[in-house]
Amino acid sequence: MSAGFRISSALWDKIHHFASFPQTGGAIVGEPNTELTEFAEELPVRLAHRVKELSELPHGLGETPSIKKVQNWYAQSFEVMFQISSLRSRLKLSNENQELINFPPVVLPPDVRQALMTLPTDSPLPESTPNPSLRHLDPDTDAHSSFSHMYGTSSASPSSIVNGFNKLKLRVPMERRSVRSRSSFVGGSHPIANRPPPVHLRRYYADTDSVVRWPPQVQDYNKRFTKVLETIKSRHDPTVTTVAQGVLEWKRMQNARNIGLDIQAWLDRFYMSRIGIRFLIGQHIALNTQQAHEDYVGIICTKANVHDIVHEAIENARFVCEEHYAMFRGPPVQLICPSHLTFAYVPGHLSHICFELLKNSLRAVVERYGLDDDTVYPAIKVVVVEGKEDITIKISDEGGGISRSAVPLIWTYMYTTMEGQGIDQDFQASDFKAPMAGFGYGLPLSRLYARYFGGDLRLIAMDGFGTDVYIHLNRLSSSREPLL
């Protein structure tokens, strides 16, 4: 794609059309039969929502050059996904797109088509549960709301409020959601409960065990589709830092010291959505490019070893600390964790969360006790405990704590207690390449990563002594994807 990409009026029409549909999600980590929305149809909707939101930001934030750049990235990716979607007509848009070489419709053999159109006969899919920390933002909280949203009995569904659009068009939900809505009436007394599910509901989940070998044209199409996803993922690598640069540009124009609650809420929604989009893209790419491993399903490790992940994060954080302060030996970190503790999770997410929090603790300890004597540093303690619902990680330091008046500010983007720091011009490679401190995104982004899989991040500070941070991870693997 050329650097001079512009969103044409025809493309804007398509973006607004797709943004009028609600996003759909499901249980994103769970049993092998947990459903996934038809990816090629869902991704354009999510991308369209982001483009529309970026064009409607308050206080002139959307007019900054960096935000415009990010908006064009999402529009480019939307255009690609729209044109290759097998569920849409192939319409020529005004922009020439070199990423679209050729995506002809795949003609399936009769036996494969029959397998995809046949409803599964196994047990019902497991239920997903909303994140308690995001319950007030979850539109799908009961069967009635799901039913009314599905069949259009309510013109103003809660999801339309959450997503910022007042008139979302009806969109076919996933099969499990349909079954749940119809079975929620006692005895199946509602007339819809006794109807067979429509054929178009079957495309989201199918039992393909009967397909011994996929046709070559399907494998070829999937390879090319995966290549396009890799290009999209690479294009959006610097999104976090570019949006942050846009916020800095806006603060300079407005001469603002801090961002407002409305921009803070938008950044939470935007970055949470980005986590979801990159997770789905990364999952698809991994399933189609990586060698099969008994402990992995895509990028999800079904037996993620908490001890090993946290220990690696400790080593990485201490290395960054020692390099930043030119120290021979940084503060010690004591890890208390069962060596056999495993659960289903994305190792990269957990590593990122622990790494960011440990950097904060190490910096606090070093700056409180100074650089003269590395033998006086009190140990930072990391305690991991497995409960019935959660795996909880507590990181405790004696770095002096945080004043009570400053605690609400630590969750604010662009807030940092380290002076003279900013966004490095070379800080574009990835989300996980970070300086010691000063970016102001470590805590709020870590909390979003924890909440995406049904967990949370909490902080308790004792001013004058230290800070305890609690990472709650949902070990039941049943969390519903937050679509904010």
Class per helix and strand makeup? alpha+beta
The number of helical segments is: 13
Q: Report the radius of gyration as a whole number of Å.
A: 24 Å
Query: How many strands?
Result: 8
Helical fraction: 40-55%
Task: Report on this structure.
With 484 residues, the protein is an alpha+beta fold. It has helices at 9-19, 39-55, 65-84, 110-117, 143-151, 158-162, 175-183, 216-235, 239-254, 261-289, 306-325, 347-369, 442-452; strands at 296-297, 300-305, 333-336, 342-345, 380-386, 390-397, 456-462, 466-474. The longest helix has 29 residues, at 261-289. The chain is globular. The two termini are 29 Å apart.
What are the defining features of this structure?
484 residues, alpha+beta, five-stranded mixed β-sheet, three-stranded antiparallel β-sheet, 13 helices, 8 strands, 10% strand
Outline of the structure:
The chain has 484 residues and is of the alpha+beta class. The chain contains 13 helices and eight strands.
How are the elements arranged and paired?
Blueprint: H1 9-19, H2 39-55, H3 65-84, H4 110-117, H5 143-151, H6 158-162, H7 175-183, H8 216-235, H9 239-254, H10 261-289, E1 296-297, E2 300-305, H11 306-325, E3 333-336, E4 342-345, H12 347-369, E5 380-386, E6 390-397, H13 442-452, E7 456-462, E8 466-474
